[in-house]
Amino acid sequence: MNRDIHRWTCALAAGIGLMFGTAIISTAQPSDTQGAIASKTLLATIDLSAWNPRSIIASPNVRNIAYIQKASDTKVQVVRDGKPGALFDAIKRDSLRFSPDGQRLAYQATQGTHQVMVVDESVSAGYRKILDGSFTFSPDGTRYAYAAQNKKRKWFAIIDGERSPPYQRIIPYSLQFSLTNRVAYIATTGSKQIMVMDGQASPRYDNIWSGASVFDPTGTRTAYVTQTAKAWSVTVDGNEGPHFDFIAITSIVFSGDSQHTAYVAQSGEKWVTVRNTISGPPHDQIRAQSLAFSPNSAHLAYAAKDGEDWTIVVDGKKVGQPYDDIDGIQPNYSLDGAQLAFGVRIGLQWGVVVDGTLGIPHTDLGHDTFRFSSDGQHFAYIAVQESAWFIVLDGKPGTFSYDRRPHENLGFTRLGIKGPVFSPDGKRLAYSVLQGTDKLGVVLDEQLGRPHWALAEESLLFSADSSKLAYIAGSADAKWRVFVERKVTGRAYDGIEVQGVIFSADSEHVLFTGHRNGKWVAVIDGQESEPFDHFLSGKDGPLHLDASDELRYIGRQGDEIYLLETKVGAV
After folding, report:
1. 21, 16, 58: which is closest to 498 by C-alpha?
2. CB neighbours of 40 closer than 8 A, spacing ≥ 6?
3. pTM exceeding the 0.70 threshold for the entire prediction
4. 252: closest CA among 208, 283, 282, 296?
5. Which of 37, 198, 414, 494 has the smallest count of CB within 10 Å of its CB?
């Protein structure tokens, strides 16, 4: 186990260097297996004595770069795609932000005694302070917002360059855009808080909470919790709901079609779920994290306790028999919403209920490993019997599992942290196992492959057409390799970037980035690019592959940074 942790940590450390722009100096020669590159565009020539290597970022779509450099002994500037910007006394290193489409750049700077925000090279008015981490672009990049304080210590929300009314405070990280470009934030006025939505203020409350987001995934609906001295409530789409003694803030959920809302609330000594303002039956306790709509939005389930018994409640009705405990993680639905699975405890043993039927008993469960296949035909999870871990597929222990008979497979002391992985078509299953104390392997289609000294268990990935499984494994030579359908693709590397393996849209090509002899290479079907000192990471990592299999990545060679573009699979 220690070997596994150490080796993958080495790969992670190399990946962190890649992501944050730390240069790795080496005298390694270019690879003799360089892949074809359709275009190589010089984005910038760096003054290595002046730039801040930790400030460099790439746009989310991996087309543009920006970094900070010293312009003189007293001035600094941002360089975007090789073009130097305005001079400032200081620039906050981690404030550089590209819009999601990469077209716009913003950053926070100091000018004399004031802080300013620079957006598209336009410098804002000077402020006493700009709230760190408050700047955000809208999802389409057309709008922006941040919070700033003037010399009178009043706070403002700056939306597209326009100041809001003054407030005592703007709550950090509450400033957010919806998918449809609506904007909201929580502000303090006097001793009260208000929710400001598209410039319109809500009534005043003692406290307001919005969870991870005030907006639903479509960006058209809103929900947040409010509190006064007398009551708690949830405001949905601007309409204040019924009052309760307490509301579980993190329990608010929207259905998949955004037509319904639900949350958990306390009234007196009892707890209820509230669906579209209608309270369900009262219970002694409800697990807030268990509240879940089915994927088709037709059903709402949760775990509830009455007396000493726990039950699953679906659409307000108890389902099945009572249990001593129910897994606190959300019940798992199949994609079509027709099947429901949840873990239960009876005495000292755990089991899984699928479609109302309790399966075989276990010592314990992998509580976050429940998986339905995409077609709903199969269900798998990880369980423990005594000290042995095993997989249960469709209610039966797998080949490499404990089945009440002593045999050599009882030596599998742990199964992978990622849990079972179904292929997109639902016909194949993969998972990782730890045998004994130091060997790891991958079980694919109930066949155990070769043992590895180390395994990046999170890297298991099927191609879109389900024909290939890829993963990253380490060997006794302290090298890491990519395996595709059990076979090594490419060379051995000192580290493989944490983005892991990418399949092309047609599932024919395999891509990843590897680190060897102090240099990074992009690898396509085993063919390496020329070496780079490091790659820059975008939204999803250093390799950006779009739906048409156009590949982009940005790499530094000495003092030059290049944008590389190619068509994956092109001759």
Report:
1. 16
2. 562, 563, 564
3. yes
4. 208
5. 198
